[in-house]
Automatic annotation (TrEMBL):
Known cofactor(s): Co(2+); Zn(2+); Mn(2+); Fe(2+)
Organism in which the protein naturally occurs: Chlamydomonas eustigma
Chain positions recorded as a divalent metal cation binding sites: H47, D49, H80, D202
Gene3D superfamilies attached to this UniProt entry: Aldolase class I (3.20.20.70)
Enzyme Commission number(s) from the entry: 5.1.3.1
Cited InterPro entries: Aldolase_TIM, Ribul_P_3_epim, Ribul_P_3_epim-like, RibuloseP-bd_barrel
Classification via PROSITE patterns: RIBUL_P_3_EPIMER_1, RIBUL_P_3_EPIMER_2
Record's catalysed reaction(s): D-ribulose 5-phosphate = D-xylulose 5-phosphate
Name this polypeptide is given: Ribulose-phosphate 3-epimerase
Pfam families: Ribul_P_3_epim (PF00834)
Annotated family: Belongs to the ribulose-phosphate 3-epimerase family.
HAMAP family: RPE (MF_02227)
Active-site residue numbers: D49 (proton acceptor), D202 (proton donor)
Top-level EC class: isomerase
Length: 251
């Protein structure tokens, strides 16, 4: 069983704020220590970026490292798969102790077809992948690159097939890039349609840009440089959380 997802607080217009340091910005040689430190400083989840050097031009960690980390941490492992074949790694990640398995829709849909695909009908390859992730005992996250239309995700959210949508606010592949507000605007479209959906943003999120993401409706915040690169990461976590909480309407 994966660790539980946050539940909606009565009277609030969206699910609770979840702060996820991106461990891509940590010293990988000290991953266990750094992960422990993030949780002690108030982080909710650990965001683990998995890159295969093919889907994106960078290579990071895979299931073996995540399995090693699991021996040192009971935290929620939020795994973002930037890989060409997400189906290939499902069992390995489930065994390694991943809680959330977030895949890119672009890695499942044939690239030449993305523009012409319907936003009304689910694609069988995507639903099959979602079923396999769930059967393996993980929560399901779906994500998209900044240039991919958000409407392509609608069939899976409408059908209640996914637990979280990750809106990428940079081109996936590297930490330390500039936040793209036009990509973050996809959160508004999702939040208006699904008030209780977990909506995650990732890429260039810091104390200056987080309010934009939160006003658009994001409640799950990934930050690498802004937390792990801060002189006081605990303060950075609190500041990000407070900025998001401030935008949540309490009637
Ligand atoms: O997935 C990615 C990059 O592809 C991110 O998780 C980055 O690691 C975020 O880093 P910052 O932009 O916050 O430095």
């Amino acid at each position: 069983m994966p660790r539980a997802l946050p539940t909606v607080i009565p009277g609030r217009d969206r699910p609770p704020t979840v702060i996820c340091p991106s461990m891509l910005s940590s010293d990988f040689a000290r991953l266990a220590e750094e992960s422990q430190r993030m949780i002690e400083l108030g982080a909710d989840w650990l965001h683990l970026d998995v890159m295969d050097g093919n889907f994106v031009p960078n290579l990071t960690i895979g299931a073996p490292i995540i399995g090693c980390l699991r021996k040192h941490s009971d935290a929620f492992f939020d795994c973002h798969l930037m890989v060409t074949n997400p189906k290939q790694w499902i069992q390995d990640f489930a065994k390694a102790g991943a809680d959330m398995y977030t895949f890119h829709i672009e890695s499942v849909l044939p690239s030449g077809e993305i523009e012409s695909l319907s936003s009304e009908h689910a694609h069988p390859a995507v639903t099959e992948l979602i079923t396999l992730i769930r059967q393996a005992g993980m929560h399901v996250g779906i994500t998209l690159k900044p240039e991919t239309p958000v409407e392509l995700l609608f069939p899976y959210v409408t059908a209640g097939l996914v637990d979280m949508v990750l809106v990428m606010t940079v081109k996936p592949g590297f930490g330390g890039q500039k936040f793209m507000p036009e990509a973050a605007a996809k959160c508004r479209v999702l939040r208006d349609k699904w008030p209780h959906l977990l909506i995650q943003v990732d890429g260039g999120v810091d104390i200056n840009t987080v309010a934009t993401a939160a006003v658009f409706g994001a409640n799950v915040i990934v930050a690498g440089t802004a937390i792990l690169g801060a002189s006081d990461p605990g303060e950075a976590i609190s500041t990000l959380r407070a900025a998001v909480d401030k935008t949540a309407v309490v009637p």
